[in-house]
Amino acid sequence: MTPLLNTQDTTVQAMPQQSAVSCTDAELAARIQELETEMRVMMWEQLQYIAEADHRGIHTETTARSLQVWLQGLLNIDPRDAKTRVTVARNVEDRRSLYGETMPPDLPDTAAALAEGSIGLDHARVIVNGIRRLPDYARCHQVTEVESTLAGYARTMSPRELEKLAERIRYLLDQDGAYRNEETQHEARELHYATTRDGMTVIKAKLDRETGAKFAALIEPLAAPRPEIDGEKDPRTAGQRNADGFAALLDLALDHDGMPRTGGQRPQMTIAIDFGDLKRGLEVLGEDGMPGTLNTERAITAQNARRIACDAEILPIVLGGDSLPLDVGRAKRTAPIHIRAALLRRDGVCAFPGCDRPPGTPEAHHVQHWVDGGATDLNNMIMLCAHHHRTLHNQRWDITMRDRRPEFIPPPTVDPRRTPRPGGRALPAQHREHLRELIPAPRDPAGAA
């Protein structure tokens, strides 16, 4: 069999009609357009050869398992590009009947536009995929009309815009199928986030089209480049602008009254930091002091804590020398906001030993019931999740406070020895002292002896 293509290495030198540097602006633009048209026409010609190679099964004479794989190796192109060329070639080839008669391509308008150089390979790919995704009855009765419409608009639209139009047509002709696709996307939604070892948060999400549209509508204006200042453009990369826009979006959500409340409070970011360390940095330049702690239990520098405090509603929680909140009791049955904040600081979402319940709405529980004279203060209250709140009452656990920390005593049915179990999440006080040793001693003021 005579080879279809000569795979030997050949060198073709083409002399430009005119040097690019000698062209006027108009001539440059015209020549760029001419070359694009010529390359598209040559691509259409290549597609005819690919289709013929497909009919001959030329790849079967090699070790390639398919025409796509053979073409990928022959041209040194990506698998997706090879697949696109094979798929389009099969739909725009000049066909022959068994009697040698010329038959129009499956997609004649697309083939004509390719042959003219009016559209490119990506346009053709969009048209082919758009036709394939039509429902069966539309492919039988309306494919000519749809293909003509898409090929016509492809002459003036980019492939991306044409893809949107193809989808609109599919939604129009197959509304039931489109609805099923949307429901499938909704079921496939997911969002994952994790904190890396260096404290960064990594977010990975796949959103259905409705949620994605909401996200784009909110993030795009917040991530827009800043206006030029004295001729200097926004130095941030697109990724940085998106991250800053997402941060601004979170700030707006935190400030919104419609956000669901947790334990009677709106969602909020909290920073626990020694007041002396916070104040010291404001008075002495370069004195950062002890780092603070975010509600994610990750550290934050006093310097950044001070920056956040410049534009934040500050709710002070006074800590003792052992890092525990001091008593700020109130003669009310329901724990007010500042008491709940202190309880969350000490106990987390649930103080019960080994609680593995997912975060929810925690409940402030009186150790000594309020109607029995128990005070609404830190020494008489603990934070519990709903599950362990019920467990506490149903199994009749006892609670004592030791060094202002809750201690849980199980009933005999759980532990016959009733060995106390410490609760809460507060870090040991000695951690703070260990960190203190790492802070360098303050430098003497300049000029001091």
UniProtKB/TrEMBL annotation:
<dbReference type="InterPro" id="IPR002711">
    <property type="entry name" value="HNH"/>
</dbReference>
<dbReference type="Pfam" id="PF02720">
    <property type="entry name" value="DUF222"/>
</dbReference>
<feature type="domain" description="HNH nuclease">
    <location>
        <begin position="338"/>
        <end position="390"/>
    </location>
</feature>
<keyword id="KW-0540">Nuclease</keyword>
<keyword id="KW-0255">Endonuclease</keyword>
<dbReference type="GO" id="GO:0003676">
    <property type="term" value="F:nucleic acid binding"/>
</dbReference>
<dbReference type="InterPro" id="IPR003615">
    <property type="entry name" value="HNH_nuc"/>
</dbReference>
<dbReference type="GO" id="GO:0004519">
    <property type="term" value="F:endonuclease activity"/>
</dbReference>
<dbReference type="InterPro" id="IPR003870">
    <property type="entry name" value="DUF222"/>
</dbReference>
<keyword id="KW-0378">Hydrolase</keyword>
<comment type="similarity">
    <text>Belongs to the Rv1128c/1148c/1588c/1702c/1945/3466 family.</text>
</comment>
<feature type="region of interest" description="Disordered">
    <location>
        <begin position="405"/>
        <end position="449"/>
    </location>
</feature>
<dbReference type="Pfam" id="PF01844">
    <property type="entry name" value="HNH"/>
</dbReference>
<protein>
    <submittedName>
        <fullName>HNH endonuclease</fullName>
    </submittedName>
</protein>
<dbReference type="GO" id="GO:0008270">
    <property type="term" value="F:zinc ion binding"/>
</dbReference>
